[in-house]
Write a structure and sequence with these properties.
single chain, alpha/beta, TIM Barrel, globular, 11 helices, 12 strands, two-stranded antiparallel sheet, ten-stranded mixed beta sheet
């Protein structure tokens, strides 16, 4: 009928009304806190390009995990910075590796907090690439066994969920087969099914000390121009045995999140990545934006696009605001 009968502002008059008719919600249980774990004790070293985030020794990672659990955050995801690196990423699948140690310690301290282990090799290789390198090529099939060994090692150490982020073809099937053969059939796989070759990862590579020594990752991570290809990647990973899928980055790929959410019935996550975090922090520290408001608006938009859960460096900060 139109104006003056239709007055949408009636439902915006107060916070009580706005809250009552709100279409999308966000809660601490939707959030996953990434943690960067390094050797040593009492280590809490701020990451230059990610102010407020730190490289943490295992004892400090446990403390952050305890805080996250107390705030109602659903999970932590662990990234390891080993003491030494080599061409075949042996630290990734070492039973006494840094992520394995952290997973065991966190599960002991906070049993109800989910621990997700990132399954990739780039933090552990001396060349910084996500797989076995021959010449200048990242070799797909030779990498699969190392990824599978890493996932099994992490699950045995206590990780509740393993999350392959390498984007090698066939890695979900290899990991699923290895987990099942090791008696770990109950361990879910969260696949980074659509991980784009993005410029938003720079601060993470500083944090994880994983920048490649040569070339880039465009031969295996996705072309930012492609959305249909993301649906193909999701389909393949689900056929291979993935239990959940992840889109990375989040805000520049809200359209992909929505398309995946509309296509599949499994849980869909999104990674609000380091560059997204650092841009908000830089703008806020210059007084250009309201940090907390932009943080919450960003996370809410990712949920609105269809993400069931969000990996974000703001997990604890957002949880504190949501619990007020």
């Amino acid at each position: 009928m139109g104006f003056p009968v239709d007055r949408p502002r009636r439902l915006r008059r107060s916070e009580a009304i706005r809250s009552f008719v709100r279409e999308t919600d966000l809660s601490p249980g939707d959030l996953v806190q990434p943690l960067f774990v390094c050797p040593g004790r009492k280590v809490r070293q701020e990451i230059r390009s990610m102010p407020g985030q730190h490289n943490l020794s295992v004892d400090e990672a446990v403390a952050d995990a305890q805080e996250a659990g107390a705030l109602g955050v659903a999970a932590v995801i662990l990234f390891g910075i080993p003491e030494t690196k080599d061409a075949r990423a042996s630290g990734a699948y070492d039973p006494q590796g840094i992520v394995q140690e952290a997973a065991a310690a966190i599960k002991k301290a906070v049993p109800d907090l989910l621990v997700i282990a990132d399954v990739c090799l780039c933090e552990y290789t001396d060349h910084g690439h996500c797989g076995v390198v021959q010449g200048t090529e990242i070799v797909n099939d030779a990498t699969l066994d190392l990824l599978a060994r890493t996932a099994v090692s992490q699950a045995r150490a206590g990780a509740d969920i393993v999350a392959p982020s390498d984007m090698m073809d066939g890695r979900v099937a290899a990991i699923r087969a290895a987990l099942d053969a090791a008696g770990l059939a109950g361990t879910p796989i969260l696949s980074y099914a659509a991980k784009y070759a993005s410029g938003f990862y720079g601060p993470f590579r500083e944090a994880a000390q994983s920048a490649p020594k040569f070339g880039d990752r465009r031969s295996h991570q996705m072309d930012p121009a492609n959305a249909r290809e993301a649906l193909r990647e999701v389909d393949l990973d689900l056929e291979e045995g993935a239990d959940m899928v992840l889109i990375k980055p989040a805000l520049p790929y809200l359209d992909v999140i929505r398309q995946v959410r509309d296509r599949v019935t499994v849980p869909v996550g999104a990674y609000h990545v380091s560059g997204e975090y650092s841009m908000i922090e830089a703008a806020a520290r210059n007084g250009w934006i309201d940090r907390d408001r932009v943080m919450m608006e960003s996370l809410l938009s990712i949920r609105r696009a269809g993400a069931d859960f969000i990996l974000t460096y703001y997990a604890r900060d957002a949880a504190r605001l949501l619990r007020r």
